[in-house]
Amino acid sequence: MTDAIGRSVRLFLVDGKSTGLITAEIMNWTGHVLTGPRTELPKFLARPEVARTGVYLLHGRDPDDPDRTMLYIGESDQVGTRLKQHNQEDKKTYWERTCVITRPSKRPHRRLSPAPNQHRTGNPTSFALQSKSQALGHGDTPG
Questions:
Q1: For a disulfide at 12, which of 23, 53, 84, 138, Cβ 3.0-4.6 Å?
Q2: What are the φ/ψ torsions at residue 106 (nearest 5 degrees)?
Q3: DSSP state string for 114-125
Q4: 3-state class (DSSP) for residue 122
Q5: From start to end of 21-141, where are the E strands?
Q6: What is the pLDDT of residues 68-110, one digit of tens each?
């Protein structure tokens, strides 16, 4: 058994509410997280983080089984553009919350590139497939 290492997480409530947009950073980690409800998508898309390369998750209740959640995991060079496309699709009616993981702006030279992102999306997808309480919202599975 390994010893757990404590970490500090910095949360910022963008509009002062825990139900709105939230940014998160784990100290000594090169990632940045932005999360919020789909109803706040216009504010979400106005954030600089979504213009970066990153991994994103679309999350909500499974319309066929209310005891399960539905999860779509994707990656894009410009996450905001991809989120706009998803928002126009009729098939993602389950989507209630969005989570985007990117590099913070203070480390632009360490930009996420598409190839490492594809590796990153494979791992969360594999993890989600192992969960009995999660259904994937797309047919993509890691090979």
A1: 23
A2: -75, 0
A3: HHHHHHHHHHHH
A4: helix
A5: 22-26, 32-37, 54-62, 65-76, 97-102, 134-136
A6: 899 999 999 999 999 999 998 877 889 999 999 998 765 544 4
CA distances from 13 to 21, 28, 43, 83, 96 (A): 6, 21, 13, 21, 18
Q: What is the pTM of this model?
A: 0.74
Look at residues 125, 120, 127 and name the one whose alpha carbon lies nearest to residue 139.
125
pLDDT at 135 (0 to 100): 59
What is the C-alpha separation between 138 and 38, in angstroms, rounded?
18
Q: What are phi and psi of 125, to 5 degrees?
A: -65, -45
One-letter identity of residue 25: E
The Cα 102–Cα 108 span in angstroms is: 11
Q: pLDDT tens digits for 19-37?
A: 999 999 988 888 899 999 9
Higher pLDDT, 119 or 67: 67
CA–CA separation, 18 and 115 (whole Å): 34
pLDDT at 137: 60
Bridge-based pairing of strands 65-76 and 134-136 is parallel
At 71, the amino acid letter reads L
